[in-house]
Amino acid sequence: MAVPLICESPARESQAELLRQRYGFSAELGEAPCVLVLTETRLELRKTDEPKLGAIFVDFVEGAAAHRRKFGGGRGQAIAKAVGLKKGANPSVIDGTAGLGRDAFVLATLGCMVTLVERHPAVAALLEDGLERARGSEVDDIAARMTLHFGPSLDVLPSLRADVVYLDPMYPHREKSALVKKEMRIFQTLVGADLDADALLAAARAAARVKVVVKRPDYAEPLAGVKPASSVPTKKNRFDIYPI
Question: Mind giving me the DSSP string for 182-216?
């Protein structure tokens, strides 16, 4: 889906034009269901036909990211166990389905060097904006461990190598919480389904030196129908582990 980018701050119009050129955004609003808006402080994604949903943006400094950084449980978190974070061990990680970068930020917070791969231009632009605002802030050291690549994982992964490749493909959610409902409604309009998700497993295995970790809802079948060697369960999800 083509997403327009408009600028609410005249002082940032040149930056908006750079983003349009880099990611192929239009400057014309038209009848697009989603629009990127560059404000005085950040880049936002808004659903034009449902303004009450509010904006989606990436914030690694405050809000939920700050709370999880301070109180999320450190290396005792399920994702840390699945990836293999241990005392003195900080594996390098490729997040092949970066999305809004939440899991990547958790892993970077815990000491991992994380390469984020995001294929949708609007989501990649939101990530870029969030990382830029994180640099020079109190989480500058964490942001320095995060590198963004724009493009489909099936195209980008062959040029990358890391200890662990982490995947969290889009999957229909059953939860009814307001946050999930808001984000999933906007993301499903914007991105659609991950129709090539099954093909990602083989590409991830080729790029990983140690293991592939796949996050799945607890009710979902294994990715590509391939049974994992083990799993780390959580209340609503699980992390399937495929050793190399």
Answer: HHHHHHHHHT---TTHHHHHHHHHHHEEEEEEEEE
